[in-house]
Design goal:
Endonuclease Iii, domain 2, Arc Repressor Mutant, subunit A, 3 domains, two-stranded antiparallel ribbon, 14 helices, 2 strands, globular, binds iron/sulfur cluster
């Protein structure tokens, strides 16, 4: 009976997906490069916000080689505004590895690239290489926990998801879960009455949303983002100029600059000006 249930649930989900799938630009291409770029951009960022950044980025860096050879300042300029700018620098590191050594052949190998964790590696391997594996993001965790009526995570989540995958349809199934999680099985107030798999679901009560990653306002991330944005828009600047232009207190600015320098996103010239690397 359990087997019949999960097969029927997968069929209903895939049927729903054929008419409800989100039209996202990176889904038009099965090459690993657009998939890797989009998945890095989608980390902690909603798809709707990613789309214009993705289009600009891919127009300028259509291949790993194009990104590998670009000045980091230009990479950061195209990324600035999306947030978590460190992702851009790590993606460029990954592009340099790919340009030099070629693409790793599977999910395990993809995890050796800078900035690529288990989810991103699984997404590239599944959507581009057609590996029949689950892509364990927060949508998968939430949706499957609700289906099964118990909190799932880590190895347990992967094992349950692996059994749910319809043979040969892993890519569509994973993307259907993402779209269901984004539009129907939302973290708060899931739309169960509109859900295509409601008859095979234990209900929304099992999933408890994880605590938020903290306030953005007043955070170090906010200060670092303000510095990068300012250097992109105004060019190199001294510490007093940066303090005036960003409105950051000197101590907060100093901490932000130290962190950015450590992450390879800012450098200081002999004249004392801070600038983006390669600018
Ligand atoms: S029935 Fe509700 S809780 Fe279950 S998968 Fe659908 S939206 Fe989520």
């Amino acid at each position: 009976m359990a087997v019949l249930n999960h097969e029927a649930r997968a069929l209903a989900l895939l049927h729903w997906y054929t008419t409800n799938r989100r039209d996202l630009p990176w889904r038009a291409d099965r090459h690993p490069w657009p998939i890797l770029v989009s998945e890095i951009m989608l980390q902690q960022t909603q798809a709707g916000r990613v789309v214009p950044f993705y289009r600009r980025f891919m127009a300028r860096f259509p291949t790993p080689v194009a990104l590998a050879e670009a000045p980091p300042a230009e990479v950061l300029a195209l990324w600035s505004g999306l947030g978590y700018n460190r992702r851009a620098i790590r993606l460029q590191e990954a592009a340099r590895r790919i340009a030099a050594d070629g693409w790793p052949p599977d999910a395990a190998g993809l995890q050796s690239l800078a900035g690529v964790g288990p989810y991103t590696a699984a997404a590239v391997a599944c959507f581009s290489y057609a590996e029949q594996i689950p892509t364990p993001d927060t949508n998968l965790q939430r949706v499957l926990s609700r289906w099964h009526g118990r909190p799932l995570n880590g190895r347990g989540l992967i094992e349950v998801a692996q059994k749910e995958l319809p043979p040969g349809r892993a890519a569509d199934w994973n993307q259907a879960i993402m779209d269901l999680g984004a539009g129907v099985c939302r973290p708060a107030e899931p739309l169960c009455t509109d859900c295509p798999v409601v008859q095979w679901c234990a209900g929304p009560e099992t999933y408890v949303a994880p605590p938020s990653s903290g306030q953005f306002r007043g955070s170090s991330r906010e200060a670092r983002g303000a510095v990068i944005r300012n250097l992109v828009q105004q060019g190199p600047a001294t510490m007093p100029q940066l303090s005036m232009q960003t409105g950051l207190e000197p101590q907060r600015l100093r901490h932000a600059l130290e962190a950015l320098a450590q992450e390879g996103m800012v450098e200081q010239s002999e004249s004392g000006h801070f600038r983006l690397p390669g600018s």
